[in-house]
Specification:
Jelly Rolls, single chain
């Protein structure tokens, strides 16, 4: 049954650039985990502010890697090793995968500009990557290099601003922000306004407890949340072992060892490269 579900999700990802893995988090755990994530997010903001660091980059004031966001949501972390989600990641990327980044992506309530967009592709197909380190030049080769998973602790809908995507755009050789990359020739500029709606866009919807998985190349955008409640979400990025996660000063935050040791084995494998104090030869010499 799990194998069939993985096969179905992989087929949709290959064809459309996204899929929804439903029922990953049991219904009777959603309310608790939603509160857990909101409390963890608030604590992370306080901790980073007190140290003068950046929660956006999960770095200390001087740029050194700080505490990984997963340390603030340890009760959610076991689901990151879900057999279907990891099975899809391995089928799409490589048998050896790891979580490159973990981030809070909750949208606050009461946002009014429902026409706002911010279409982009994710790293390593993000042409605005810091210092362009690791950013793939256009035209993009037809190779998947990462998967973004949005862990939905709130229902995604038009009422609270589900994620916008342009289906099949993961197969496009361009990026909606192509004109912002000086490495691209004018011939590659597509004239798309990434801050405006794009023809063919759809707003993804799904029940809380699901994991929304995106090919890193797909054109997508967060949406304004006009509802009266926050849309609670945590993001994880699954990467193959052959992608360098150390290059370019991006989010390289560390998981405290006491947090890591409590993870299930399948989750430990995803975060082993980020354990504080671990002698990682790649990190050591970067």
């Amino acid at each position: 049954m799990v194998a069939k579900a993985i096969e179905t999700h992989v087929a949709q990802l290959k064809a459309e650039g996204w899929c929804l893995v439903e029922g990953v988090i049991p219904e009777d755990r959603i309310e608790y985990l939603r509160a857990h994530v909101m409390q963890g997010h608030e604590k992370a903001l306080r901790d980073y502010e007190a140290r003068g660091g950046s929660l956006a980059f999960q770095a200390e004031a001087n740029g050194e890697p700080s505490t990984n966001a997963v340390a603030y949501v340890p009760d959610l972390a076991p689901y990151f090793g879900d057999a279907r989600v990891v099975g899809v990641a391995k089928a799409m990327l490589d048998p050896h995968v790891r979580i490159a980044q973990t981030e809070f992506k909750t949208r606050p309530p009461g946002e009014k500009n429902i026409h706002r967009r911010g279409f982009h592709s994710d790293w390593p197909h993000d042409i605005l990557d810091r210092d362009c380190a690791g950013a793939i030049r256009m035209p993009f080769p037809n190779v998947i290099m990462g998967l973004t998973a949005l862990w939905m602790l709130s229902r995604f809908s038009a009422e609270n601003g589900g994620t916008w995507v342009v289906p099949c755009s993961h197969l496009d050789v361009r990026n909606p922000r192509s004109h912002l990359d000086p490495r691209n020739s004018p011939a590659m500029h597509d004239g798309i306004d990434p801050s405006a709606p794009i023809p063919g866009e759809i707003q993804l919807q799904g029940q809380a407890g699901s994991a929304l998985m995106l090919d890193s190349r797909i054109w997508h955008s967060t949406a304004s949340n006009p509802s009266d409640a926050p849309r609670v979400t945590v993001l994880t990025r699954y990467s193959p072992w052959w992608i360098s996660l150390e290059f370019g000063g991006r989010n390289r935050s560390l998981v405290p060892r006491n947090v890591f040791e409590k993870f299930p084995d399948e989750v430990k494998e995803l975060y082993r490269h980020r354990v504080a104090g671990e002698d990682d030869p790649i990190r050591k010499h970067s």
